[in-house]
Amino acid sequence: MSTPEDCPQGNVPPPPADGGPAGGYPQPGPPGAAGEPYGAYFTYFHSTPAGQTVGNRVMGIRIVDSGTGYHLDYVRALLRWLMSYVSGIALLIGYLWMLWDPYNQTWHDKVANSYVVKASHHPPPADFGKPASST
Prior knowledge:
The chain is mainly α and 135 residues long. It has helices at residues 32-46, 54-59, 74-89, 93-96, 107-112, and strands spanning 61-65, 114-118.
């Protein structure tokens, strides 16, 4: 436990001696091992023909390629997920960008060349969660 004398900045505790995150709170950074299950989840579901995760399905939205209107391929779905970290780290500006963008795209949509659309206006062509065929 730190005493006020140990805290020259006021009541902020000094960084731990072992070099870990200050105060034990996670620090922003690359996704790392903890983010890999999320990356696999979003990459898989956004690259299925339905182009939607379970949460997207509940919200009635899906992710589509901005050029073709079809689902994203695995590489672009992964790129979109990785860029979503950058969108969040930059004070959420990447997420808020859609509010003034003429195409309502976030930074990760722009990088992946994708749109978020209403599933009721653009219904998915296949059953939910089924992988894309490799034909």
